[in-house]
Amino acid sequence: MKNVIALLITVGMLLLGAGAYAEADFTLLVYLCGSDLQENACDDIYEMGLAENGDNVNIVLLAGGASEWNYDVIKGNTRNLVTIRNGNFESVEDWGWASMGSGESLMEFLEYGLTNYPAKKTAVVLWDHGAGSAAGVCFDYTTQERDSLTLTEINDVLYELDEKLGGFHIDLFGCDACMMATYEMASMLSYYNIDYFAASEEIVPGVGWQYTPWLVEAGKNPDMPLEQLCALITDSYMEACLNENPDEYLTFSAIDLSKMAPLREAMEQLGTALQTELKGGRTADIRRGRSQMYTFGSYMDGSWDMVDLGAMLDGYAKFDPDGAARARAALEDAVLISRQTDNLNPCSGMSVMIPQDTKSEFETYSSGMDLSVYIPNWMGFVKSYAGQLTQGSYSFSQTTPQNITGSDALTQQLSAIFAGQPNVWFWNKETEAYEETAQTDGAFAADEGDYAFSASLSQEDLQYLDYVEGMMMVNVTDDELYGYVDMGLLQNNVVDWNSGRIYSLFDGTWPVLDEQMVPLYDQINNQFGRRSLIPVKLNGENTYLVVEFAAGSTEGRIIGANAGYDENGLPIRNTEKLKEGDRIVPVYTMYFGFDEDNEMEETEFEGDEIIWRDGLTVKYEDLSDEGDPLDMMFCFVLNDVFGGYDMTDIISFEL
Question: What does the CA dihedral 548, 205, 574, 248 come to, rounded to 10 degrees?
């Protein structure tokens, strides 16, 4: 973390109401909403102050949205207009309280900054939490409702600003906030005189943008092309975040807004095609495709349904190969820079919102992302799809799994089933076309003696099935109580879409932390490895241990703790590093008995305390080697295409 205590910035002359400055080489306008991230915000202010560029660089901040700040000169529960020059707070002016999540506040700041600090190049950065296209950016924590700037509010501000100033020009518009490199945001910005847009598809760690390197270069080299400035911002961000946490999942991109028109046109064509598919009864196919897409920033308890635009085009190319190909080619042309860590599947540089986890709240947030004035057909598809999900429901017929021992014959049978799965479409960059091919991934490895489970579904069930999971439980039933402890979900499942048979393999091993079986849930699972979560109490506070497994490895490194989403539904930007002596207590969920509605009751209980020490890992261990047989239970979790799920009958078995 940057050293705020050793701050070199001093409070200089307070030049309140000094009026407009002469044209500088570069102006940075930062709309800085501190929320619960004010310590990180102060770190970034410190970085800005290290760029001592003289009078040719203006750094102007509006700091608000927080109840307190680490700098005495910046007051809580109000808005502070701060100008920084040559490492000094040149002025700090109290602008009075207003919500940083209001368009009026953003409008006031941008009008003031663009009018009073003209420059040959101007950058605008929105700083704070971000929640993608659905909820926007800059969540004011001095308001009870955590008011935020939605995409439609930002659009209204830019429209009014253009009208009021008789036109404006912004060279670079950026978001130092999570998950804001979205197609919807870029489409809207491209209608204004803004050249480039820089942001991340993924969660932005607390360390965030690194302001010193590129601000120094902007001062030294005023003729530096914007493309080079975007590269400096990207490189410094990736380097700083990886220095802080080498295991971080990162993306960063810069988008050439002048090249967005062909992408919008192609996406409008695709949006029309997808609406036609919905009307033709193919909601299930669209939902199954969506479920195969990685959702940026997803945790067990939250997501904002942002998926990579390139991955979406790959998944939906079968519905309109030509439209998807046009969109993919235009996407690659519009994205100037796209960087990512190598633990993620390929990312295109832009994300797009497709409802899934947030479908129930769609009516609440849809107006804030409704950019139908610019992308009517795409927004029409999103609205229609969300409506289909919220209006539909399905209950699977009851079925009982069978416990069968793994064998070479079973492995061959599963491999044959997988070989018969539907073809996939892939983007051929050389021909700039989508091509259909057979699936090549996913063969199961089942050694002699492995456990396997199978069940049968009806043809009607198959029509409404999205995907299957296997639920593993420890049986705690006794003479007085029926109950079980949830240990997590098995993801190595396959569906025979012809016969209706479903399968799940279990090799008899389970994750163990310091000699305790622990529940484990996958957050990311791809060809490069897995990131998994273990529910725990860390020093008395509920959170998750974040565990990294290399591809094919049965031992995972614990990289820290993160609760995922806070009580306001916003992603937590900082993963806490564990320190020697930290107290870790695994948390288990137990289901028992039945209430008056014949639903099982739920409670949590805690495991044995573990004291953190360097080198502690999570290992998959063979539970059948533990002496006395372990009484286990299993069922399938059947997820339907509307977002609901049913559990099959539960069966018992011994390890």
Answer: 10
Burial 79-90 (b: 16+ CB within 10 A, else e): bbbbbbbebbbb
130, 353 Cβ separation under 8 angstroms: no
The β-bridge relationship of strands 119-127 and 170-176 is: parallel
pLDDT tens per residue, range 442-497? 444 444 346 789 999 999 999 999 999 999 999 988 887 888 999 998 878 889 89
The DSSP output letter for 160 is H
The closest of 265, 415, 435, 245 to 333, measured between CA atoms, is 265
Q: Residue 549's beta-bridge partner residues? A: 530, 556
Establish how many alpha carbons lie within 13 A of residue 234's alpha carbon, considering only the half-sphere containing its beta carbon: 27
Question: 83-87, 221-225, 274-278, 595-599 — which is least confidently predicted?
Answer: 595-599
Q: What is the pLDDT of residues 246-289, one digit of tens each?
A: 989 999 999 999 999 999 999 999 999 999 999 999 999 999 99
Q: Per residue in 26-48, is it b (16+ CB within 10 Å) or e — as a string? A: bbbbbbbbbbbbbbbbbbbbbbb
d(CA 495, CA 291): 15
Q: What DSSP letter does each residue of 4-65 carry, written as one string?
A: STT---EE----TT--PPPPEEEEEEEEEE-TT-HHHHHHHHHHHHH---GGGEEEEEEEES
- Ordered structural domains, the chain, with CATH: 10-15+23-259 (3.40.50.11970), 263-334+346-391 (no CATH), 402-654 (no CATH)
Question: Exposure of 645 by Cβ count < 10 A (0-12 exposed, 13-18 middle, 19+ buried)?
Answer: middle
**Nearest CA among 462, 444, 471, 449 for reference residue 502:** 462
10 Å CB burial of residue 402 (0-12, 13-18, 19+) is exposed
pLDDT, tens digit (0-9, with 9 covering 90-100), for 87-136: 888 888 999 999 999 999 999 999 999 999 999 999 999 999 999 999 99
> Three-state secondary structure along 458-526?
CHHHHHHEEEEEEEEEEECCCCCCCEEEEEEEECCEEECCCCCEEEEEECCEEEEECCEECCEEEEEEE
> Do residues 640 and 460 make contact, with C-beta atoms less than 8 angstroms apart?
no
Beta bridge partners of 80: 63, 94
